[in-house]
């Protein structure tokens, strides 16, 4: 069925026109991006393993963090290997099926990230506003349900959108980006895109407006408790909410950069800067989160210091 739909588009590949000739510098860009990808893998995998093997970190906040780190590995893997391959190629083309797969990966990464951050704000709201009932309200079963909903809902919404995308009749195959995105394909369509536009608006409301309203509500309640609560409550709120807010702001900025480039003429901005801003949301977020949570979350920092001490002792024993 899917193969028949793909055939109906009459486009077998896309040309990515945002790439430009960098000469021998392409090997430098390749090395930088490869190092960045390796850093993302090592930092996120390290924190996932750290949370999984330490029972003291099997708390709701850290389990939601674990889901966040898994998503960052997923999202970066949907982009980095593709860009590394394209940098070394002389002709920058991508097959239709691979393009649709990349769109699915990147858009589901964004969905999971946003909904996961929303669930984390809800968790902070319960922890700070209802400390005595926190563990009865945020049970293990509820954590499993929330994480499952985050992933299943996100993947399902994006799968429906991609099904509608591959149903379009396309009249061109040039995408002015370094990766595939949904709106570029819709712009190439010469068939009616009303259904896609309506679904896009509904999806945007569910994916952006609803999470933002829930996050704002959570933090308004947290602020209210902080102003009327004790110094200990304020300290707890600052120490646990600061990394979350920093992550949320960084991710939102990255998404805004991409939206702005879609809506406004950015020809006056240098090409390299435009490319960087278009991939900010998936390149910097997976680096930023392990850093900010590793440095700010006291339990993670303590466990990291403990590992350093153990490694130091073993090194001295070997000597």
From TrEMBL:
Superkingdom assignment: Eukaryota
- Keywords of the record: Cell membrane, Disulfide bond, G-protein coupled receptor, Glycoprotein, Membrane, Olfaction, Receptor, Sensory transduction, Transducer, Transmembrane, Transmembrane helix
Main localization, broad class = membrane
Do you know which PROSITE patterns this protein is assigned to? G_PROTEIN_RECEP_F1_1 (PS00237), G_PROTEIN_RECEP_F1_2 (PS50262)
Q: Which SUPFAM superfamilies match?
A: Family A G protein-coupled receptor-like
InterPro entries attached to this UniProt entry: GPCR1_Superfamily_Member, GPCR_Rhodpsn, GPCR_Rhodpsn_7TM, Olfact_rcpt
Q: Which Gene3D superfamilies match?
A: Rhodopsin 7-helix transmembrane proteins (1.20.1070.10)
The record's Pfam families line, in alphabetical order, gives: 7tm_4
Topology with respect to the bilayer: Multi-pass membrane protein
Q: PANTHER family, per this entry?
A: G_PROTEIN_RECEP_F1_2 DOMAIN-CONTAINING PROTEIN (PTHR26451), OLFACTORY RECEPTOR (PTHR26451:SF885)
Q: Which family does it belong to?
A: Belongs to the G-protein coupled receptor 1 family.
Which protein is depicted?
A: Olfactory receptor
